[in-house]
Amino acid sequence: MQVSKRTRVAAVAALGALVVSACSASVVPDSEDAAPQHGGSLVVGLEGSWVSLDPMRATTYVSFSVLQTIYDPLFDLDENGDVVPNLATGYEMSDDGLVYTVDLEQGISFQDGTPFDADAVVTNFDRVRDPANGCSCLGELGVLDAVEAVDESTVRFTLNRPQAGFPVMVLGGAAGLMGSPRAIEETGGDLAKDPVGTGPFVLDQEVPDNSVRVKAWDDYRDPERPYLDSVEFRVIADSDSRYSSLTSTAIDVADNVSVTWLNDAELNPSLEIRPQGASGSNFVMFQMGEDSPFQDPRARQAACMALDPELIDEALYGGIRLTGQESPFPTESRWDLGEVDGYSSYDPEQAKEIVDELGGISFELNFTNSPDNVRVGQALAAQWEVVGIDAKIRPMDQPTLVENAFGHNFDAMFYRWRGAMDPDGNVTRWFHSSLATPDTPSSNYNLVSDEELDQLMTSAAETTDQDERMDRYRAVAERLAVLTPYCYVWGADWNRIMLTNVHGIPDRPDNIMMLRDAYVVE
Amino acid sequence: MTEPLTDPVAAAPVAKSRSRRRRPSFEIVIPGTLLALIAAACLLAPILPGLPDPNLGVLNGGEGESRMGLFSPGHLLGTDALGRDLLSRSLHGGQLSIIVGLGSVAVGLLIGGTLGIVAGYAGGAVDTVVMRVLDVFLAFPSLVLALVVATYLGPSIPNLIIAIAFFAIPSYARIARAGALSVRERDFVLSARLTGARAGHILIRHVTPRVVGSLLTYGLLICGIAIITEASLSFLGLGISPPTPSWGSMMADGKTDLSTAPQIVLVPGLLLFLTVVSLNLLADGIRHRLDSEGSSR
Questions:
Q1: What is the predicted pLDDT for the residue at A3?
Q2: Is A369 in the B-facing interface, judged by CB distances under 8 Å?
Q3: What are the phi and psi torsion angles at B198 (to 5°)?
Q4: Which of A212, A305, A521, B260 could link A351 by a cystine bridge, Cβ 3.0 to 4.6 Å?
């Protein structure tokens, strides 16, 4: 009979595959301290589309990984989130924090031969600043009043209010990626049609939302770089497929692989795990609006007190996640505040008392239906059950979850935020009362509306002194601890996994992949 | 071959089945016993002594640890990442498979069988319309269809049954229609019609009994596929909501631990495999017997 035979054959094949995979040996050359070498190509598996090859349309870190092969930024960000010179040589800030004077490298040309100078920078900024062009970076550019060329290699940026995050968010962000003025003019302002920058690679072939290939630019300003002849980015949306493509060496680098695969990857001698750190976090967020079971702050605090992220981490991952977070700034990140006064950390006895006082709490917990999240959801519900909180867990697909989040349509949600390199990006867009709009979608998902918090966040964004800023963000975190919009679970830690013969890709907490210095040992 | 003017099946069904005594055939006994054992263990799981609560783990006060191996004290087949007993979860998960398997076969058989018999007996426009509509459904890949229905309806046991029964309806209808077509022109049906019997009476009394045998055999096959489909939907996160155990969701849960704790996938996987293979072998055995009965008649 047909069906049963097929079932049996499939089962035998599956068992066979299991046995084979259990005793694999390294399939790539072992090359721990190999010197950089020229040639070869690299295939990168990405978790999503780069959307467009115009920097104006850059959205996620994936866009930046692809864009920065073709375009150089004025400033790079290092692993601490500090700006380091790239096309610019440095900047100077006026004492009132309103004027930034940026010096540029000289003698550089774009890939089409146009010279890179102060006028080119002004052209680029005028393009992204024009609201008609709808740059995804418009939000960060609201502080910018004027951009002028002082001389051939100096540009002056004038702000309308102090903004400490300006160099990181603007000069080192999407707006800081420089495109050729000639290409901008010839394409009618749409660089996606003809992407021309000063970067180490030029576009070879693009299949929208599927794959993009770039090849080395022979006239790059550093004659030694790039080492690679070509790079191909492929979208492989499913984390599990991305990982299996890597184990079969169909790709050389898998971006953002689920933490659940780390145990498996550690046992595979062909693979190297590169933890990127975290600038964002995983948390449970509560709907604070009317008719929500979490309208009462005591209910939110009890829910947080019931959770022990360390124990969950220990059971699920063997204790490798960045736990201990009590503010919007994850553990081991640059703005890590450690323990925060007043945060409702693990205390099941008190949680039980509050739940009894409130006469029980019952709600629905939403999260994406990846196998990993389904496990975490069950773990959270199990801990809530211990203190008498009844949580129905409801996994759903990612687009529906995000839509419900923006629409404020949930009781509680287990959510991941990728994180911003400047701390303002981790608070204002989430908690400002101007975004607490129950009837319109907004990024203040849980409808936090608190005047004191608004003032604290604005004052922290304006401070330019790092220590002073840290103090002001502590005040923000302490106010948040009282309001308890979130229970923090752990940092949104990224893990890039590569074949062991791939080298030279720096680690960054925002997970952007820089391939200028990358090389492959054959 | 001369055709009787009265329907031998309708006239003396009971006497016929008693008149034959057969040796038990291994084809039927072995898979049948295995199925009965699995079903009994699953259905009795809530009252089996020494079996821990399937949802009790390290985070809500259960005994044991995360990812214990086979033959651990207190956990015969080990535990999953949350420290929940694998044997207990597998047996409780089996209940869901049995309910969904039998439920979807019953629903599919009832709807598909009725449609097919009516279409085959009535013929003409009714037949054309019903069968063409069902052909459209048959053209969809069944798992995709079940995925769509399950996503649309949301996770619950009745919805799972509907989603899985949905794709089986056209196949049942085709089998029932073929049976009904072959019976329709036989002499005893014609004579019943000539004596003024109503269509409903003929369908129930003469046509249905001749179609039911092949439908039930096919139902056994479909039951196996239904159980696999339920596991696939659960594996993809579209089955019953966790923490309620199901074979599919248990396997999805354990797939990242395959290299370090394979038992999390293998225990429910093996149960699923044994159940489905037994169902298929049983269906085979029964069909062989029916065929040989048919040819010796």
A1: 41
A2: yes
A3: -80, 155
A4: A305
